[in-house]
Design a protein that fits this description.
The structure is a single chain. By secondary structure, this protein is of the alpha+beta class. It has 2 domains: 6-268, 3-Layer(aba) Sandwich (Aminopeptidase), CATH 3.40.630; 272-347, OB fold (Dihydrolipoamide Acetyltransferase, E2P) (Beta Barrel). The chain is built from 6 helices and 20 strands. Strand 5 (45-54), helix 1 (62-71) and strand 6 form a beta-alpha-beta unit. Helix 1 (62-71) crosses helix 6.
Length: 355
Amino acid sequence: MTDRAITCGDVTANPGESKFGYLHVGYMAANTECRIPFQVINGAKEGPVLCVESTLHGWEPVGAEIIRRALLQVDAENLAGTVLSLPLAHPFTVEFGGNIEGAGLRTNPSDNLNLNRAFPGKLNDGGFPAPNGWLTEQIAYHLWNEVVKQADYLLDFHDGVSCDELPVAFPQAYPDGEQGCRPNLSEEVKELAKAFGSEVVWWRGGRSLNTSMISGSVAANGGVPLVVEAGGGDRIDETVDQAADCVLNVMKYLGMIDGDPVLPERQIMVDNYMVYRSITGGYYIQEPEVRIGTKVEKGQLLGKVVDPLTSEVREVTRSPLNGIIVSRRISLPINPGGYIAHIADTDSIIWERDN
């Protein structure tokens, strides 16, 4: 809870102020500065500290636009609490496209490390984060120590990369009351996911705490983290505004802003969710009726991978289950293991609500 000034890097925002700034990390060999942009909106009224962050992986840039649109609607004078915004958390992977989908990389081109496996920075012999290390570890150190560890709540945005994607929340189970986690953390995360207001929520149980991820570090620091995804394909579509509403839904749920949440007609939570990948490569030509939000039946034709020269059908893709298309491929070409679709298993619904 805060009714005080908030400092990030060398920027201090008093109650009722909104400020922009940069976290200085260091310089590259040719004197290129590595710095991370941020915004602090410090509300005039007391409330929780919410960190909204995206682009830990440079091939997932849509979250930055979602956050920008959401925060344009937030006024510090009418805000209860503080918003810490990190829309471009890993600027080097943004500048260089970040990744090669076919290789599954989500890495910094300077050191080949994944920022979302480097928190809270390189650990010294005492187990505490140290300012030295590879560049990615230094970025994690500055993000964590100068911004993120102040947060009571975290929204960690990702997107569909080569696919478009509905807003979707991915709450997970945590070791409640252990390793620094809150006593009832799993339930708090689950309720936060419902409040996010996505049509589909995927409950991920049976997972261990991984503090090298930003969400795990927040959980171990006593905060409430929620991983979410929306949009993709490096493009702006209707999911951007939908997801911006979801950010504001969370702020309404936490009592930070006034207003009624914007919710879909129906929400479901499933505990099975298929990330369907191709076996071979070529051009993926999907069936025209397969769109995000579409209900599909097990065995239904989704599309075909064809030879871009001869039109030979190399692979026929069919839904492996009854479900809802949360994400579907929109990019050419496709290599073996490329994303075809994300499908929420509607035979595994554990919670549902009509709004």
